[in-house]
Automatic annotation (TrEMBL):
E.C. number(s) listed in UniProt: 3.1.26.4
Cofactor(s) it depends on: Mn(2+); Mg(2+)
Keyword Signal annotated: no
UniProt organism field: Christiangramia fulva
Functional summary from the UniProt entry: Endonuclease that specifically degrades the RNA of RNA-DNA hybrids.
Major localization listed first in the record, in broad terms: cytoplasm
GO cellular component, one term: cytoplasm
Protein name: Ribonuclease HII
Keyword Metal-binding: yes
Keywords, sorted A to Z: Cytoplasm, Endonuclease, Hydrolase, Manganese, Metal-binding, Nuclease
One biological process term in Gene Ontology: mismatch repair
GO molecular function, one term: RNA-DNA hybrid ribonuclease activity
Length: 198
């Protein structure tokens, strides 16, 4: 059972999806849940199947006190690196929520201060606290929807299935067709890659 971080404080949870992808944005969500929020299937998005993630997305959006989702796209990732882009996406999501929280809890071990609001990084926090788990569900589902849309532009990479992650199928398509504008130029797209012309 996931915990609430602190019932006496207004807590915003934040998490990202897509850090390890070869294509597409990194996407983050920030959310404040009511203290009374409970859901038996809520968990780290990687532990929840696609059907349940879609179900949870609707429930979370309906019951959240407030939430926001933000993308940081490939050009920015290539410019500032994926760690900074992930933190930027979380900051962008936090900027959009309608309530200033007392504290921010973040999945993982790296973050940069946001508006002088205290924060805590929690390793595997998306499997421990409902605020981070809910953020992970929103980040994952919104990013998956984006990858589904751009799949139609470049169906040869099969992003509707692999969502831009470095699967064998995705890498075979890059080898055959080359990269496209949605690929992250700063990433090693192929294992044998030394220099790739874009």
């Amino acid at each position: 059972m996931l915990q609430s971080y602190n019932l006496k404080l207004t807590i915003a949870g934040t998490d990202e999806a897509g850090r390890g992808c070869l294509a597409g944005p990194v996407t983050a969500a920030a959310i404040i849940l009511p203290n009374s929020f409970k859901n038996e299937i809520l968990n780290d998005s990687k532990q929840v199947n696609s059907a349940n993630r879609k179900l949870l997305k609707k429930i979370i959006e309906k019951e959240a006190v407030c939430f926001a989702v933000a993308h940081v796209f490939m050009e920015e990732i290539d410019k500032i690196n994926i760690l900074n882009a992930s933190i930027l996406a979380m900051h962008k999501a936090l900027e959009q929520i309608s309530i200033n929280p007392d504290c921010i809890i973040v999945d993982g071990n790296r973050f940069k201060p946001f508006r002088k609001i205290p924060h805590e990084c929690i390793i595997k926090g998306d499997g421990k606290f409902k605020e981070i788990a809910a953020a992970s569900i929103l980040a994952k589902t919104y990013r998956d929807e984006y990858m589904q849309r751009i799949h139609d532009e470049f169906p040869m990479y099969n992003w509707k299935k692999n969502k831009g992650y470095p699967t064998a199928e995705h890498r075979r398509a890059i080898r055959e067709y080359g990269p496209c504008p949605y690929h992250r130029k700063s990433f090693r797209l192929l294992p044998e890659q030394l220099i790739m012309d874009f």
